Automatic annotation (TrEMBL):
GO molecular function, one term: transaminase activity
Organism, as annotated: Corallincola luteus
InterPro entries: Aminotransferase_I/II_large, Asp_trans, NHTrfase_class1_PyrdxlP-BS, PyrdxlP-dep_Trfase, PyrdxlP-dep_Trfase_major, PyrdxlP-dep_Trfase_small
Assembly and binders: Homodimer.
Protein name: Aminotransferase
Length: 396
């Protein structure tokens, strides 16, 4: 039977990582995958994670199963992070959270919950968006529709085009927003634009789904929740898929969360029972370790303060690399205006490099960039900056 199976296409981003690993050149640079690198080009374990793990090593009493939705303390900590401790969503118990295997797992729960409960089967995603959104939503049987987001000429958001394409979204359609640090463009709505989108969503009756994978990488932990919190003011129901891969550096522990917000606690409980039922049929119950680390840090004031600083360090280093990248390209005599890179948020930006330029950069210079021209600024360091800017200068 297996001989009739044809090969699936390689994942464009993870496939690039494989090619990078196999490249024998020691000058190679990877700006493909979204993994934070420090100044030494390493992805270290956060000090707060190590401290939490030491606490857990002493205090953990069992490896018995968690419940379907995972640890309740984790759910409460996630909700405080998303909505703020004083939020009426928290005090009125309007939200339910399931610990999920990564942000991807959380998105899949959201997609399957939506696909199984409602007649509408459309999900609206920005053009462009993180490539895996398409896989996850298609796997859940949803029809994916794109809304305009990016103006490639202006290297900026096209908000009017976004609004006009979203005119087509009907009541009950699922509409995906990136909570902050839009992947791949690095461009987020302003506060006024979030207000406008939130009001439109409420007026039209969309079901908003926030993908929140970079909280803390834009302006700060609290600041980055602004868009989501504006939405919760205007919309009584929404879904959130959180990922703690990046802001806790817990990539391989697979730690995320699916959160459902309803008008009241009873409705939330009933709707959430359907999410629990599909989780039971999928992976049964979540892995414990990563979420226990996150809970330990978020629930300890001193560890929280230290973690906040560690996130700030990652955020500031990326911003420094953005500025240095723009300055170094200028130094290399590149005429093209790359200043937009310094104005964008989070790990990614769209460089504007063409597929051909990206291919030449890989073949001739060992510089790995996703075919769309998306660059992971988090992969730049003071040590590789000169070489990578020389390579880019040589191809444009
Ligand atoms: N959403 C976006 C926009 C992402 O960029 C990522 C990871 O790169 C995820 C979700 C999923 O994160 P995780 O690795 O936790 O599954």
């Amino acid at each position: 039977m297996f001989e009739q199976i044809s090969a699936a296409p390689a994942d464009p981003i993870l496939g690039l990582t494989e090619a990078f690993k196999a490249d024998p050149r020691d000058t190679k640079i990877n700006l493909g995958v979204g993994i934070y690198k420090d100044e030494a080009g390493q992805t270290p374990i956060l000090a707060t994670v190590k401290k939490a793990e030491a606490i857990l090593l002493e205090s953990e009493k069992t490896k018995s199963y968690l419940s379907i939705e995972g640890n309740a303390a984790y759910g409460a900590a996630v909700q405080a992070l998303l909505f703020g401790k004083a939020s009426n969503i928290v005090s009125n118990k309007r939200a339910r959270t399931a610990q999920a295997p990564g942000g991807t797992g959380a998105l899949r729960i959201a997609a399957e919950f939506y696909a199984s409960q409602f007649e509408n089967k459309k999900v609206w995603v920005s053009n462009p968006t993180w490539a895996n959104h398409n896989n996850v939503f298609a796997a859940a049987g949803l029809e994916i529709v794109q809304y305009n987001y990016y103006n490639a000429d202006a290297k900026d958001m096209d908000f009017n085009a976004m609004l006009s394409s979203l005119e087509g979204a009907a009541a009950g359609d699922l509409v995906l927003f990136h909570g902050c640090c839009h992947n791949p463009t690095g461009i987020d709505p302003t506060e006024a634009q979030w207000q406008q989108l939130a009001a439109l969503s409420a007026e039209k009756g969309w079901l908003p789904l926030f993908d929140f994978a970079y909280q803390g990488f834009g302006s700060g932990i609290e600041e980055d929740a602004k868009g989501l919190r504006i939405f919760t003011e205007a919309n009584q129901e929404l879904l959130v898929a959180s990922s703690f891969s990046k802001n806790f550096g817990l990539y391989n522990e697979r730690v995320g969360a699916f959160t459902l917000v309803a008008k009241c606690s009873d409705t939330a409980e009933t709707a959430f029972s359907q999410a629990k039922s599909l989780i039971r049929a999928n992976y049964s119950n979540p892995p414990a370790h990563g979420a226990a680390v996150v809970t330990t840090i978020l629930n300890d004031a001193a560890l929280y303060a230290e973690w906040d600083k560690e996130v700030a360090e990652m955020r500031d280093r990326i911003q420094q690399m953005r500025d240095l990248f723009v300055a170094t390209l200028k130094e290399k005599g590149v005429d093209r205006d790359f200043s937009f890179i310094a104005r964008q948020n989070g790990m990614f930006s769209f460089s504007g490099l063409t597929k051909e330029q990206v291919a030449t950069l890989k073949d001739e210079h060992g510089l790995y960039i996703v075919g769309s021209g998306r660059i992971s600024v988090a992969g730049m360091t003071r040590n590789n900056m000169d070489a990578l800017c020389s390579a880019i200068a040589a191809v444009i």
